[in-house]
Specification:
alpha+beta, 21-stranded mixed β-sheet, about 30% helix, globular, binds the ligand C=C(O[C@H]1C=CC=C(C(=O)O)[C@@H]1O)C(=O)O
Length: about 475
């Protein structure tokens, strides 16, 4: 099932080699083909298994936009807190030396996919050894599925010594392999026996009490405190199987996976950080939570309770203020509804306010990400004071949890979600993370229960089941 002609690729690479010679540096050669048959994205990801450590998966809510990457033509890595600006500069420079087909469709052509740590200033532990503070990958092979189109892109880094014939052969062979066995995989539905260790549970509950007290007697309005559970299985986890479950069980969330070495960071986040399409930018305020009812009546009652609960409305309002203020710096004609509505996912319902704006000239997606992150849904308010509190009080290393994860293309489009409801999968073990917005009248026992609820999507996708987390 070859979709790109060998002669076409060969010609493009040969041109790239000439360009590399003339500018004395390596250049990107990118070419995209529209395919007129369906490709199952999880099957495509699975087919890339000989590129373990170099794959990613992304599906926007309702499968409206899916992107899968295999292999790396180039990787941007940063271990500093200047990562957004550094990547912006690196990406522009790479694009200045690229030859790509002119395709308007967002997410087709040269793209970067990657993730940023929640807090580059927090000391890094061994848990996240396979991930830098931030990384974004220009994938070798990309599958992009939009509402009505399906595209395959190959990206190559070419220098003056590249053998065009060899590179064209290798890339086409790999693409052919990726396009084998494209039927939707079926996985064994049997559940696993998981052992769950709740790390520093009592300390976490005590810290909620302490921070709520400090909030009552200081200028700090809100701090998000997170915790970690470590899950062990009798056999290695299979990331394709987890992706498949997440897609089925969490259809209105962002489903993501990013590999680093043998590890995989993955999740199902309901929270958009920011999307940029053309001149428009979209963000989401998501904060304030309650469970789902077991009957429609109970569910409605709980939703109503949430919509009228002063503590949750306050938690939410802090986020709306911060996102609106970040938008005011980068956008014009901002629109924010006056009141939140409910966003109901399988295990939980949230208060939700969408924010839309028209991006000012020369403001890029990464600039918006930098201005927004971390919103008070993940950090707190005021931002710096809340971050300082999290650094000193939280015992876990959040790593990529609660950081921005997503993609951008060569035309300035792209989207980032906030990497919550996530897990770092490491062979037979996984660390899961969940946090809660703490305000002055937060109750430690209820916040603890809320984290149990927030662990459920990933626990279930890992194939596990536990009464405590029900
Ligand atoms: C920090 C998390 O959730 C945030 C997003 C939505 C609702 C939240 C809340 O109600 O506390 C949190 O701010 C998490 O799931 O780990």
């Amino acid at each position: 099932m070859v979709t790109i002609q060998h002669s076409t690729i060969h010609k493009k690479v040969a041109c790239g080699v000439e360009q590399a010679k003339s500018v004395s540096r390596s250049v990107i050669v990118s070419t995209s083909t529209k395919v007129d048959y369906a490709i199952d994205p999880v099957a495509f990801y699975r087919q890339g298994e000989n590129r373990i450590g170099e794959r990613f998966f992304w599906a926007a809510p309702n499968g409206d936009f899916v992107m899968v990457g295999v292999g790396s033509a180039h990787t941007l890595v940063s271990n500093s807190d200047n990562c957004f600006k550094q990547f912006e500069k690196d990406w522009q420079e790479l694009l200045n030396y690229s030859t790509a087909d002119q395709i308007e469709e967002p997410g087709v052509g040269p793209v970067l996919f990657g993730a940023f740590s929640f807090d580059p200033k927090k000391e890094k532990t061994n848990l996240w050894r396979n991930f830098p503070i931030a990384k974004m990958v220009l994938p070798q092979h990309v599958l992009t599925i939009t509402k009505d189109e399906c595209w395959l892109t190959v990206n190559m880094m070419v220098d003056q010594n590249t053998n065009a014939e060899h590179l064209a052969d290798a890339i086409l062979k790999e693409q052919q392999n990726l396009l084998q066995n494209l039927t939707k995989p079926t996985y064994n539905p049997s559940h696993r026996e998981l052992t769950i260790e709740e790390l520093d549970k009592d300390e976490w509950i005590a810290s909620v009490d302490k921070v709520a007290g400090q909030i009552r007697s200081s200028e700090i309005e809100k701090v998000v405190l997170a915790r970690e559970i470590r899950v062990k299985s009798d056999r290695p986890f299979i990331t394709e199987e987890i992706l498949d479950r997440l897609l089925t069980e969490q259809p209105i969330s962002y489903i993501f996976a990013l590999e680093g070495g043998e590890d995989c960071f993955m999740g199902a986040s309901p929270e958009r950080l920011v999307k940029k399409q053309g001149k428009e930018a979209f963000s989401t305020c998501l904060a304030g939570s309650i469970g789902r009812g077991s009957t429609p009546e109970e569910d409605y009652k709980l939703g109503n309770e949430l919509l009228n609960d002063a503590k949750n409305l306050h938690e939410h309002e802090v986020v709306v203020r911060a996102i609106t203020s970040a938008f005011e710096q980068g956008c014009e004609r901002i629109s924010v509804p006056e009141k939140p509505i409910l966003y109901k996912i399988r295990d939980i319902q949230h208060l939700y306010t969408p924010v839309v704006g028209e991006v000012k000239k020369n403001v890029s997606l990464l600039t918006l990400v930098e201005k927004l992150h971390p919103t008070p849904a993940l950090g707190g308010h005021p931002k710096e004071e809340a971050l300082q509190k999290i650094r000193t009080i939280e015992r876990l290393d959040r790593g990529l949890y609660a950081g921005p994860i997503g993609w951008l293309d060569s035309k300035g489009n792209g989207e980032f979600a906030v990497a919550i409801r996530s897990a770092l999968v490491q062979g037979k073990e996984a660390s899961l993370f969940a946090g809660c917005g703490i305000v002055g009248d937060s109750d430690p026992a209820s916040e603890y229960k809320e984290t149990q609820m927030k662990f459920r999507p990933m626990l279930s996708a890992l194939g596990g089941f536990s009464h405590e987390f029900k």
